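The passage that follows is intended for readers who have already worked through the single-chain material. We present the inputs for a multi-component assembly, then the predicted structure in tokenized form, and finally a short commentary. You are encouraged to pause after the input and sketch how you expect the pieces to fit together before reading on.
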Amino acid sequence: MSLAAPDPSAGPAAALRRALASRSFAVGLAITLLVAAVALISLIWTPYDVTHLVVADRMQPPSLAHPFGTDHLGRDVLSMIMLGARNSIAVALVAVAIGMGVGVPLGTFAAARGGLADELLMRFSDLVFAFPALLSAIMITAIFGPGAVNAIIAIGIFNIPVFARVARAGALSLWPREFVLAARAAGKGPTLITVEHILPNITNLLLVQGTIQFALGILAEAGLSYLGLGAQPPMPSWGRMLFDAQTRMVVAPWLAIFPGTAIMLTVLGLNLLGDGLADVLDPRLRRRR
Amino acid sequence: MTAYLLKRLAIAALTLVAASLMVFAVLEVLPGDPARLMLGLNASEDAVVALREQMGLDQPMIVRYLAWAGDMLRLDFGRSYTYSVPVIDLVAERLVVSLPLALIALALSTAIALPVGLFAAARRGSAGDTLSMGAAQVGVAVPNFWFALLLIYVFAVWLRWVPAGGFPGWGAGAWPALKALMLPAVALALPQAAILARVTRSALIEVLGEDYIRTARAKGLPQSRVLWRHALRNALIPVLTIIGLQFAFLIAGTVIIENVFYLPGLGRLIFQAITQRDLIVVESVVMLLVAAVIVVNLLVDLSYALVDPRLRTPA
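Having made your guess, compare it with the prediction:
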């Protein structure tokens, strides 16, 4: 009895090895996990209570007691950054979920049906793309009231056409393939084919786009909360912290440095992770790089 | 070519109409009476009635939409409620700040991104490539308003080379005005340049793998000529697409950046109008900006035909 030797390039272990060999992926994953861990820890513990204002300790430079210093109300900046991570991640993640949840069914449906449905979807996404996303998000949050929930909706709406387009393009390239043809010959309908054959094969594409939109969502949330349209006090947000830092930057530069670095690091981590994922999941792309 | 042109024009026109319906609808579905909303709860009944009449709120919706769209086409945007001046005057006054700002930023980002992308693609895999693309990764991740704060700290507070904010107006001479726009333009340009450099590099690398590049090299053309004459021209379509898309990002970016620098531009006008619920200004300016984005994207589409002769002949 002879067993064929397992293909060393297949299997999850090999995939993980390949993934960690990609520098972008490894660094991106490390940063992303760090930020996610910080956000999770903030659910149960932060060094200080940020709703507790200690005016005597205001505007303290970084020290052992307050590694990132304190702000104009005596709040610990490190604790605020930890809570800010939770806020940013929550907003961007739900916005991605909205975009995927609505966009992917739309895109795969358009690809399966073609014709008028497809044309309508493409023109609709042209229309949404004509509205500068951040400008419209500002309008939505300002009109329907500032706050984390409206920020999520505003950012999420603009993720919809992005995912619809990616899903459509991915699905269109699969429909002429033999295995789809075989499924059609077996009498499966478009919905079943989409669920059983198309979706599993565009997961990679969606995952890569998901990390990109996640990073863009973090930036958009920061912009909105800088303008005072995101999460409302006492919930700290990175953008709001930068707004508060602006007028005090000369005497307390740490107030501007730490939240900005947090945003940059998070977005950088996600972008590297997305690049790395694209490399790992699609070796064809890798050769071109 | 004519068919391509007509199709793009028709799509642009349709998008514009649909966009106007959308802007109109958003303000239409607002809870409550727009006039009451704008005037606040303490307004007298007379004032509300007068404003309702001015806004034509007593007319049916379709009549109001057609009247509004017709006025827009004639560049008659109505009067701002908060500033009590025609919206068109407000827009003109603010445009002389925002338009130069956006154009300088666009020029700056293109001027940085093209050489960097070209350099990185030509020396793919080298230390220079890794370094410049690493810098681009960081550039994409930096929120532009944070970068703006750092610029203010270094160049306005510390070195005192340029003002930290505000705008002296063009009347005081071109130099002080340009100086006031310099930091905002750099802040706007940096993330855009980072994205554009990455796109330029990957578009070029794609093109550099083509057979005609090998042919050009095989016949002994120098590297610079291969890059500029053969590769860059063919890589221009994705690059132009991104430059066109960046226009929309720049417009949205001005809303935040103008707030950081207290610049009296269109972005700050619209932000203030939104917070003051001056809906007449909001819907006009949003519509104008959307129209600008649609026109720019149309121009980009048409420029493809200039860059790529294959698009000039009917398929």
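Commentary: The interface with chain A takes residues 11, 14-15, 18-19, 22, 26, 30, 137-138, 140-143, 145-146, 149-150, 152-153, 157, 202, 205-206, 209, 248-249, 251-253, 255-256, 259-260, 270-271, 274-275, 282, 286, 289-290, 293-294, 297 of chain B (CB under 8 Å). Chain B is about 75% helix and 0% strand. How closely did your sketch match?
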